[in-house]
Design a protein that fits this description.
By secondary structure, the chain is an all-alpha fold. It has one domain: TspO/MBR protein (Ferritin). Helix 1 runs antiparallel to helix 2. The chain starts with a helix and ends with a helix.
Length: 165
């Protein structure tokens, strides 16, 4: 891997992990207070599991985005592939923003109902990202599978918490 690629990989992962850090600003203060008072569904995992899972998922996203970004460099001569990569990266950024917004809505605003609407939109944005990434890099798309599975589970948790409270 060239030095330029190494820098791009680090930047890609750092951007994704930054989304997690931003979300945690709203999440961490609510865990011992508001979140602790909520009735949770039977399948709710222990609180300690969320940080390592999200850290891993954001790292996988970072690698996926790097693969698409790197492919953009390779395909920089024809206009069509360049446009395809730009669209793919835009959809990715959109889903990353929706991911951050979920933490703000659920934990910051203490609004599980609105957060549920957000996570549904997020789920479709992730599916869209997988589809467009697949057309550029199959590996990048595959790296999103754990993320869509976790967000599907999070959707269940969000809905259950909304209904139980």
């Amino acid at each position: 891997m060239k030095i330029n690629d190494t820098i791009k990989l680090i930047v890609s992962i750092a951007v994704c992990e930054s989304a997690g850090i931003i979300g945690s600003i709203f999440t961490i203060p609510s865990i011992p207070s508001w979140y602790a008072t909520l009735v949770k569904p039977a399948l709710n995992p222990p609180a300690w599991i969320f940080a390592p899972v999200w850290t891993t998922l954001f790292a996988l996203m970072g690698v996926a985005v790097f693969l698409v970004w790197k492919e953009k460099e390779i395909a920089s001569s024809p206009a069509a592939p360049r446009k395809k990569n730009k669209i793919a990266l835009s959809i990715f950024v959109g889903q990353l923003v929706l991911n951050i917004l979920w933490s703000i809505i659920f934990f910051g605003l203490h609004n599980p109902g609105l957060a549920f609407v957000n996570i549904i939109v997020l789920w479709f944005a992730i599916v869209g990202t997988i589809i467009v990434f697949y057309k550029i890099s199959k590996l990048a798309a595959y790296l999103f599978i754990p993320y869509i599975l976790w967000v599907s589970f999070a959707m269940y948790l969000n809905y259950a918490i909304w209904m139980l409270n």
